[in-house]
Amino acid sequence: MIKIAPSILSANFAKLGEEVKEVEAAGAELIHIDVMDGHFVPNITMGPIVVEALRPITDLPLDVHLMIENPDAYIEQFAKAGADLISVHVEACRHLHRTIQLIRSFGVKPGVVLNPHTPIESIQHILEDVDFVLFMTVNPGFGGQKFIESVVPKIAALSKIIKERNLNVEIEIDGGITAQTIGVCAKAGATMFVAGSAIYNQENRANALQQIKAAGLA
Ligand code: DX5
Ligand code: ZN
Predict the structure, then answer these.
(1) C-alpha angle 40/45/49, rounded to 5°?
(2) Pocket, ligand 1, Cβ cutoff 6 A
(3) What proportion of the chain, given as a percentage, has pLDDT over 70?
(4) Is-contact 51 86, C-beta < 8 A?
(5) What confidence score (pLDDT) does residue 184 get?
(6) Please, what is the average pLDDT of the chain?
(7) ipTM for the predicted complex
(8) Residue 174 annotated as catalytic
(9) CATH for 3-217, options being 3.20.20.70, 3.20.20.80, 3.50.50.60, 2.120.10.30
(10) Which pLDDT value is given to residue 31?
(11) If 0-12 CB within 10 Å is exposed, 13-18 middle and 19+ buried, where does residue 162 land?
């Protein structure tokens, strides 16, 4: 099972509703929303009002990726705005367990995100508490960057741990995902894939999405 989560970071913000509907019709499983604060990452994007505006536009789960300092202060707002999944960076959370419980307390699926250099040992003791782990395969901050291949062994290693411990944790990959890069991640055990530029920067988005999904299943 492969789930594709188009990242609206690469969409046309002047017509965001249509952009979301287009990828939903094309077979997307989730909508990925990149929240950046200009502190944790060197870019500023969108806040809860965008989640709230998109909520009535689509039936798909809204996958909110928080690339912000002090995520605890904003989780309630994103949950009430309609987020279905919220992921936080291990590098931004001083009390990760508390943050994960806070996300769950609003009925939202919690995920933890690892930057490319962050070892999986940092999340060994939170795996029982999360619904998914998101591996960054670019340095967070911008769409359209090149896939960092050296993350793949981390994906495989975590996948092995999840199986050994018989946990119900999904693996999501974010950054540089294309029809060329998805396969190696799927083989390593990932099932959810964010794709921004590889879908939204293409003339035929439906075709691009289906090609990425097919490559992930191959
Ligand atoms: C990067 C974001 C990604 C980004 C992916 O910091 O977290 O979700 O939109 O864009 P692509 O697929 O173009 O690498
Ligand atoms: Zn993202």
Answers:
(1) 115
(2) 7, 9-10, 32, 34, 65, 138, 140-141, 143-145, 174-177, 194-198
(3) 100
(4) no
(5) 98
(6) 98
(7) 0.99
(8) yes
(9) 3.20.20.70
(10) 99
(11) middle
